[in-house]
Amino acid sequence: MAFTALFVANGLVIGWRNAYDVMLAITSPAATKSPILAWPLSLAGWLAGPAVVAAAVIGYMITAGIEGRRKNPLGELFRESGHD
């Protein structure tokens, strides 16, 4: 929520394209109309990128682990254990 508010504030002040470029470290925050506002967005962009990638990798690993354990359909597992 705070990240979105920071991006919107920067978009309104320095322009949407500049805010996007600052967030992705394409443009230096010092080269904008409001560097004081752009520096926190740049820092948030540096922190958010690795966090999103880490969450995606962890999600993939959890999914792969679950799929590895689901070799048999659930109904077949109940029949093997004697429960219907």
Characteristic key phrases:
about 80 residues; mainly alpha; 4 helices; about 0% strand; rod-shaped
How would you describe this structure to a colleague?
The protein has 84 residues and is mainly α. It has one domain (2-81). 76% of the residues lie in helices and 0% in strands. The protein has four helices and no strands. It has helices at 2-14, 16-23, 35-69, 74-81. α1 crosses α2 and α1 (2-14) crosses α3. The longest helix is centred in the middle third of the chain and has 35 residues, at 35-69. It is rod-shaped.
H/I helix tally:
4
Broad shape = rod-shaped
Q: Major sheet, described briefly?
A: none
Spell out the helices and strands N to C. HHHH
> How many discrete domains?
1
What's the count of strands? 0
Q: Summarize the amount of helix as a percent range.
A: over 70%
Low-confidence stretches: none
* Rg, nearest Å: 23 Å
Question: What's this, in brief?
Answer:
The protein is mostly helical and 84 residues long. Helices cover 76% and strands 0% of the residues. The protein contains 4 helices and no strands.
Spell out the blueprint of helices and strands.
Blueprint: H1 2-14, H2 16-23, H3 35-69, H4 74-81
Helix pairs in contact: 1-2, 1-3
